[in-house]
Amino acid sequence: MTDFDEPRTADDTHTALLGDPRNDENLIVVQFHHAMLRFHNAVVDHLVERGFTGDVFVEAKRQVTLHFQWAVLHDFLERHICAPGSVSAALRDVTAAVGSPFRMPVEFSVAAYRMGHSMIRNQYWLNFNFPKASLGEVFTFNRSPNLPVRSKCVVDFNAFFNTGNPVPVDNMARRLDSVLAKGLEELPGMSGMMAVLATRNLLRGLALGLPSGQGLAKHWGIPVLSEAELTSGLSTDEIAILRSGGRLLLTKTPLWYYVLREAAVRQRGTRLGPLGSRIVASTFVRILKRDPDSILNVSGGFTPVLPSKTAGDFTFPDLLRFARVLA
Description:
Mean pLDDT: 94
Oligomer: single chain
């Protein structure tokens, strides 16, 4: 049973033994964390099989970190999340001294990177046992009395990544827009307005004094969304809210909402728009540039060496194949 789960305590609580408890938030995240553990172990085996004579675990950690960073930067961000050219622009323009201190920009953590909430579906094809799992089930299949995670609950990642292996349903992310899945209006363990994820995001941005989308776009010289663009394709009720209160929300739009509308209008919801892309790409690149051990600071440059579908590249499907977690 535990072969499909994160390591947990042996008592009745089955508490996940993790550095960050958010990796035990829901079944899909749990299963991906499990895949990363399997990936590490596969790299250890790979080194041993090839007669590596140094410290196997030190080298395995290095290889896992570098290949994961490559996949995040070049597969996740460059191919799927950011507007074309945004990652290259960040690599060219962002400056950060190696070893310099880093603080996560609130514009990233409280607004732009919360674009992921818009991508969540109302239900998921987890595997053949659960072809229409609701969000509620996704959040309960890794909770008592379903722990440790049962073999029947193992997530089939062929339905979440373009692995080339056929599955009945592809759980492709929803397009980026200002509409969230119904299940995100009833967050587990919350009540009232705090159970509504959109409300929480907007209130948090207000409490932290985030700049408006228009203000930040003007600061960086990025073309600002017009009123017509902000309201394009929206329901009558949503437009009425934006135009209420003297149209303040149309001239000083909350950054999180603006990033979602920009993606919907400028990229048809398939990627972030120019402002959202700049925030996200520059944040990741700055992290990598300041880390002396990252792929951007490897002496002579870094090229993936683990087996992959395309030589010199390494994607998340490659990672899952190497970890041997694909059916």
